[in-house]
Amino acid sequence: MKTNDLIDMLARGPVAVAPHATRRRYTVALGWGLAGALLMMALGLGVRPDLAQAATLPQFWFKTLFALSMTLLAVVVSSRLARPGAALKRWPLALAAPVLIVWLVAAVILIQAAPEQRVPLALGATWKVCTLLIATLSIPSFAALMWAMRGLAPTRLRTAGAMAGLLSGALAALVYCLHCPELEPPFVGIWYVSGMLVPTAAGALLGPRLLRW
């Protein structure tokens, strides 16, 4: 929307907003993003063959619940940033809580581990590709969320873009759990978080351009 068009619209008085517009656009965006990430994972990586066995381990659910909680909290924060004037309140602090919990658990594990075990716990066997794969799987969600947010007229474009990136990264990490063989919290606290931060940084850089309305 151009500035003159916005001025004309405001001059005509209050304009009704379609009910549940944010929910509808986010449902569509997250649906396409999730489908795209699942398709990319299935075709390019594959589901880990021992998924049923892994699902019996508490470490698997710790990793999965971390990615799920980041996804759900990022939905709340990003949807608020998508609307002009919506207050964030304490939601950003809530968003930081899962990361802090993972880091705390990881620190305890590393402190208790023997010195020769600490590096393997942190690096695992796939540290070279984890961040890249999560960032790659976030691409469908990133594109869909940028579309959704642009149509909702955000005003804090850089912050909104960063949150769209974080949400796409968290959703990608959730999908990646179906493939990733790593289970240790130190690995998750380093490389899963790094994978989420890549699209977050991309969103912060591209938000002012892609979300301008």
Q: In terms of structural class, how would the helical and strand content be classed?
A: mainly alpha
Mean pLDDT: 90
Count of individual beta strands = 0
The largest sheet is:
none
N to C succession of SSEs: HHHHHHHHHH
Backbone CA Rg: 19 Å
Q: How many helix segments?
A: 10
Helix content: over 70%
Q: Tell me the β content.
A: under 5%
Query: Oligomerization state of this entry?
Result: single chain
Q: What is the 3D shape?
A: globular
Gist?
The protein has 213 residues and is mainly alpha-helical.
Give me some keywords for this one.
mainly alpha, 213 residues
Describe, in plain words, how this protein is organized in 3D.
There is one protein chain. This protein is an all-alpha fold. It is 76% helix and 0% strand. It is built from ten helices and no strands. Helix 4 (58-81) packs antiparallel against helix 9 and helix 7 crosses helix 9. The longest helix has 26 residues, at 185-210. The chain is globular, with a radius of gyration of 19 Å.
